[in-house]
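Lay summary. Proteins are chains of building blocks that fold into shapes, and those shapes determine what they do. In this project we predict the shape from the chain. Here is one chain we studied, written as its sequence of building blocks.
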Amino acid sequence: MTLGDANGTPTVLVVEDEQHLADLYTDYLADRYRVETAYSGEEGIAMLSPDVDVVLLDRRMPVVSGNEVLAEIEEQGYPCRVAMVTAVNPDFDIIEMRVDDYLVKPVTREDLREVVERLHKIAAYNEQLQELTSQKLKRNVLQVEKTQAELESSERYRRLQSEIADIEKNVDALAAELDVEKEDLRL
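And here is the predicted shape, written in a compact code that computers can read:
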């Protein structure tokens, strides 16, 4: 996952067939995020790319539905996070959907900003956790294969240990932020 452009700004793809809503959602987010807007499911599919971090997806659209856009995201293996933003009340079918959040219209500016921020943090958390696991595996291999004296004399090993500590701090900080948000959502 790209986790934002070169400046760390997440790219959000709004896929909404009601043009006034698509434009409104884009206006809600454009001051904080790089926003691309698709006015149909077909356009949304055409605009998908690995650079998209978050997709805000209407579920009920003519010709190509949000469910079909979601299936394309899954089929192509795009690493984006997806929130359905729809007038369709959720039912048990959402259990099988690969969506990270589900908002029922009408939604506010704050609703959209909060969901994009939360999904971006989840993506960052997952990326950091994956990096942490990779670095710890390397450290573990070295600890099995090298003597303690070799480990202690290696600058590269010390850098690896330092990287692991930094990543752990980042993971812990993101986890704490996400837990706070979960608590806020329960209220």
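What the prediction tells us: The first strand starts at residue 11 and ends at 15.
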